[in-house]
């Protein structure tokens, strides 16, 4: 049994850090083990241009722990009004690494999202020309579509056509949750990839619903049935470079999760690499974790892998029951439970 695991320092290719006072905790948690992170732009108001992204990046950097070399990689929030010139300026700024497509109403703070893909085709053409990846929250939000089928319908009705229209556009289908999404990525050209979260590897909808509703397991895209979970595990440990780490760690204060209309999102950043290690360990695939966590993401984005390493040990420790979140508290995924792996060296690069 492997009790010590050394990895090239991983990156998180999809994270929510929020803003303001919340950054003190979320940045610390992300910087603890990750070298870089693709930062989601769905703030209120959203990050729509390069100037806003640069200011947001500086607010994140201001909260980085001493001696940390954590790099926040910024993204733009696409709207129906995002112009080709916005993309050109973003790419030339050197701070913007992707643009995010939220179908309007799909998830947290997505009300300003895109209402029609065809409306932004000129913008997507510019992204393809400039090599700026498109990050996709892949769900159809029509009320007649069952929530468990949103991802499948998005692929069938929109994503297949999008790939045909823009064969050179780099696309990341984020936080995939279904076998249909896996099959799509496997059959697509090399410029199409996907991120997989730790919580979708570790849990399915039974964990969220059996024995009572567990609001801190509620996320979007929602957890699916066990057969989809098993397909995700198979993809993650396959060694296929199209699949890589993206936590979709999404913090919300406790009172907004434990409410009559609770918001979506699982907070995993405090123990993200440990949770992924546990998932790969359960699948007897620890030897596959480093590529998934540390190499496939940078390769897709055309960036070098990190040069230093982290060390994980098989050691039980108890997850905190609560974590500070600005003036509030949040409940992390696995609150108060035992996590079976622990990272020894944090991101101080000393």
Give keywords.
about 350 residues; alpha/beta; 8-stranded parallel β-sheet; 3-stranded antiparallel β-sheet; 12 helices; globular
Low-confidence regions: none
Shape: globular
> Strand content of the residues, in percent?
15-25%
Radius of gyration: 19 Å
How many beta-strand runs? 13
Q: Count up the helices.
A: 12
Instruction: State the end-to-end CA separation.
Output: 30 Å
Average pLDDT metric? 95
- Summarize the biggest pleated sheet: 8 strands, parallel
Report helical residue fraction: 25-40%
* Helix-strand topology string: EEHEHEHEHEHEHEHHHEHHHEEEE
Widest sheet: strand ordering: 2-3-4-5-6-7-8-9
From the helix content, strand content and strand pairing, which structural class follows?
alpha/beta
Structure overview:
- This protein has twelve helices and 13 strands.
- The protein is of the alpha/beta class and 350 residues long.
- It has an eight-stranded parallel β-sheet with strand order 2-3-4-5-6-7-8-9. The protein has a three-stranded antiparallel β-sheet with strand order 1-10-13. Strands 11-12 form a two-stranded antiparallel ribbon.
- Helix 3 links the parallel strand 4 and strand 5 (96-101).
- The model has no long low-confidence stretch (mean pLDDT 95).
């Amino acid at each position: 049994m492997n009790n010590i695991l050394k990895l090239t320092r991983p990156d998180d290719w999809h994270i929510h850090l929020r803003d303001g006072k919340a950054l003190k905790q979320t940045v610390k948690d992300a910087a603890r083990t990750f070298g870089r992170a693709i930062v989601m732009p769905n703030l209120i108001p959203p990050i729509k241009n390069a100037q806003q992204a640069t200011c947001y990046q500086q607010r994140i950097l201001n909260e980085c722990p001493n001696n940390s070399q954590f790099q926040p990689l910024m993204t733009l929030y696409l709207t129906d009004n995002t112009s080709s010139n916005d993309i050109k300026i973003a790419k030339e700024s050197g701070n913007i690494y992707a643009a995010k497509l939220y179908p309007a109403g799909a998830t947290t703070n997505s009300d300003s999202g895109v209402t029609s893909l065809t409306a932004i085709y000129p913008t997507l053409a510019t992204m393809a020309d400039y090599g700026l990846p498109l990050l996709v929250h892949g769900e159809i939000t029509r009320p007649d579509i069952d929530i468990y089928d949103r991802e499948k319908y998005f692929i069938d009705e929109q994503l297949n056509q999008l790939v045909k229209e823009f064969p050179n556009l780099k696309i990341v289908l984020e936080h995939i949750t279904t076998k249909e999404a896996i099959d799509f990525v496997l059959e697509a050209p090399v410029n199409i990839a996907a991120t997989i979260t730790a919580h979708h590897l570790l849990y399915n909808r039974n964990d969220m619903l059996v024995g009572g509703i567990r609001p801190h397991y509620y996320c979007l895209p929602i957890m699916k049935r066990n057969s989809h979970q098993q397909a995700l595990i198979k993809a993650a440990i396959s060694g296929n470079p199209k699949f890589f780490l993206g936590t979709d760690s999404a913090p919300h204060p406790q009172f907004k999760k434990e409410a009559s209309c609770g918001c979506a999102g699982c907070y995993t950043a405090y123990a993200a690499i440990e949770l992924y290690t546990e998932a790969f360990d359960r699948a007897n695939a620890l030897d596959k974790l480093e590529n998934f966590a540390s190499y496939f993401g940078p390769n897709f984005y055309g960036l070098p892998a990190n040069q230093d390493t982290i060390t994980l040990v098989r050691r039980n420790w108890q997850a905190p029951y609560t974590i500070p979140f600005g003036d509030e508290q949040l409940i992390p995924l696995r609150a108060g439970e035992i996590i079976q792996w622990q990272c020894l060296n944090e991101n101080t690069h000393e």
